[in-house]
Amino acid sequence: MALNLEQLEAYLVEANLKYRLEEEGHLLTGFATSCYVTDQGIHGVAVAVSVTEDGQFLEFTAPRLYDATGCREPGKLFQALLDITMKTKLLRFELDSADGEIRASVTFPVEDGIVTPRQFRRMLEAIPKAIDRWHPVIRQAIERGVVDLDLVAQPRHFEA
Predict the structure, then answer these.
(1) Whose CA is closest to 129, among 42, 35, 65, 29?
(2) pLDDT attached to residue 112
(3) Residue 75 domain flag
(4) Sheet of 20-21: strands edge to edge?
(5) Residue 128 has pLDDT above 90, yes or no
(6) What is the CATH number of the domain that holds 34?
(7) How many Cβ atoms are within 10 Å of 18's Cβ, its own excluded?
(8) What pLDDT sits at residue 160?
(9) Distance separating alpha carbons of residues 114 and 15, to the nearest angstrom
(10) 48 vs 3: which has the higher pLDDT
(11) Under 8 Å CB-to-CB from 158, ≥6 apart: which residues?
């Protein structure tokens, strides 16, 4: 059973989240953050939700989280992003080498199954929670070329 945008809208409504339908064919919602702040000074993460491959994949993407073009030591930034990925379930980072955009995403293969509202919410919230938590590590890697995971208190278990 393939997913469609109407089903995703129903999940967002059920979660009492504001959203809008973008011309590109995805839904856009956002989450306030306490630690993460954009380069424009906004404390929040936008998350685009879409279905791809005829409803066989569910994708969550947080675009334009960071700009790697001014990074002092790109290797250290990539090390930090990989270290965070190792400690965080679901999340992956992407780099657009054309413009330096770093984004985060979660991709889920629906195939012939369904996604429950609880699963949807967990995947949706994984990005803003992880970005808010790991922001000091990423920012330091970009600005100083230093990777220090101890800037963030380590949980006893892997986070979602």
Answers:
(1) 35
(2) 76
(3) yes
(4) 20-21, 27-32, 44-52, 57-67, 101-109, 92-96
(5) yes
(6) 3.30.1460.70
(7) 9
(8) 52
(9) 18
(10) 48
(11) 87, 88, 89
The long-range contacts involving 42-45, CB below 8 angstroms and separated by at least 24 positions, are: 45/127, 45/128, 45/131, 45/132
The pLDDT of residue 155 is 60
H-helix segments, 31-116 = 74-87
Q: What are phi and psi of 42, to 5 degrees?
A: -95, 130
In a domain, 98, yes or no: yes
* Cα(116)–Cα(122) distance, integer angstroms: 10
| 158 located within any domain | no
User: Do residues 131 and 81 lie in contact, with contact meaning Cβ atoms separated by under 8 Å?
Assistant: no
Number of domains in the chain: 1
66-111 confidence digits (pLDDT tens): 999 989 899 999 999 999 999 998 999 999 999 999 999 999 999 8
The residue segments making up the domain with residue 34 are 5-151
Residue corresponding to tokens 């879409």: 50
- State mean pLDDT over 50-76: 93
Residue 157 belongs to some domain of the structure:
no
What percent of the chain lies above the pLDDT cut of 70? 94
CA distances from 91 to 1, 7, 49, 131, 159 (A): 25, 23, 14, 10, 10
